[in-house]
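Lecture notes, part 5. Sequence design as translation. It can be helpful to think of inverse folding as translation between two languages: the language of shapes and the language of residues. The source text, in structure tokens, appears below.
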């Protein structure tokens, strides 16, 4: 995949591609170009067979501060009538959310420092999250009279339950890394000194896993969220039929019987 982006750094290493949002002077807040580039990079990672795990992170002291407010100001919106077009603008973020959720391989958000506004919700769209203990999750929207966007209204109650979701969205208070772990907002919170090594080990482990099964696991779990048990079990049968035909299933069973570690190729 291409690496010469303006606002992204791309690092590819043994099946893991790390995408770093890189506008540190504005805490990696989104302008149009960075959003377009992130969509392009995610599309490329999805298609690249050599990529078996994606890590999304931010350069400098933050993960991201949401929409760049200097390039999307409410005063302008009122004057130009752009307010009715916010939903149009959001479609691009929605494309990114769908890409992450439908990509048949794991996507991990690595959050140190602040993750605010739509950056927070893009982190929640990822399959898993590792936080440093200096992480600050902030559904900043109500502070500026908005509602959570980028899927926040969907992801929050699924991750932390209804009451806490409403509290986080309405009070817009910061949640630190250890509290985010306690709430289930992140999978793991580690001291900042251990953050990079932890993310690397976590991503590397995923990149050496049964990638096709991981894709099917995503499909099973995300689709099962919105259907009844009968439909979920039918889907399970269909997806297990597919998993059963993979080389990694064959390898996993052989490794078990031969009492050795499986060598998954992702096929
Ligand atoms: C920023 C930003 C920023 C520009 C920090 N923009 N410069 C989607 C579609 C359409 C319409 C609207 O909304 C959306 C979705 C959204 O994401 S809405 C929510 C947008 N984000 C926010 O409301 C968060 C705004 N930022 C903050 O509240 C604070 O900066 C946080 C809490 C994130 C961090 O606070 P601090 O750690 O104290 O850092 P800071 O405030 O000093 O920021 C550092 C610099 O970054 C500063 O610039 P400066 O030139 O003074 O050093 C900020 O102006 C700039 N910055 N966020 N979103």
């Amino acid at each position: 995949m291409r690496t010469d982006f303006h606002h992204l750094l791309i690092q590819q290493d043994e099946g893991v591609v790390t995408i770093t949002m890189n506008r540190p002077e504005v805490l990696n807040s989104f302008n149009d170009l960075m959003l377009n580039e992130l969509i392009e990079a995610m599309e490329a990672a999805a298609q690249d067979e050599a990529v078996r795990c994606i890590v999304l992170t931010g350069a400098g002291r933050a993960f991201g501060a949401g929409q760049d407010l200097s390039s999307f100001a409410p005063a302008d919106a009122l004057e130009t009538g752009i307010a009715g077009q916010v939903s149009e603008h959001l479609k691009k973020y929605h494309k990114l959310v769908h890409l992450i959720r439908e990509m048949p391989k794991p996507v991990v958000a690595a959050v140190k420092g602040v993750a605010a506004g739509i950056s927070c919700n893009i982190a929640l769209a990822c399959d898993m999250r590792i936080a440093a203990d200096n992480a600050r999750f902030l559904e900043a929207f109500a502070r500026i009279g908005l509602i959570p966007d980028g899927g926040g209204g969907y992801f929050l109650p699924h991750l932390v339950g209804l009451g806490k979701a409403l509290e986080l969205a309405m009070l817009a208070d910061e949640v630190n890394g250890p509290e985010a772990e306690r709430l289930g907002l992140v999978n793991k919170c580690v001291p900042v000194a251990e953050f990079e090594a932890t993310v690397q080990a976590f991503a590397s482990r995923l990149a050496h896993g049964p990638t096709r099964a991981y894709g099917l696991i995503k499909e099973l779990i995300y689709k099962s969220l919105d259907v009844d048990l009968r439909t979920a079990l039918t889907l399970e049968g269909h997806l297990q039929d597919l998993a059963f035909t993979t080389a990694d299933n064959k390898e996993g069973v052989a490794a078990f019987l031969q009492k050795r570690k499986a060598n998954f190729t992702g096929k």
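The translated text above is only one of many valid answers, since several sequences can fold into similar shapes. The longest strand covers residues 8-13.
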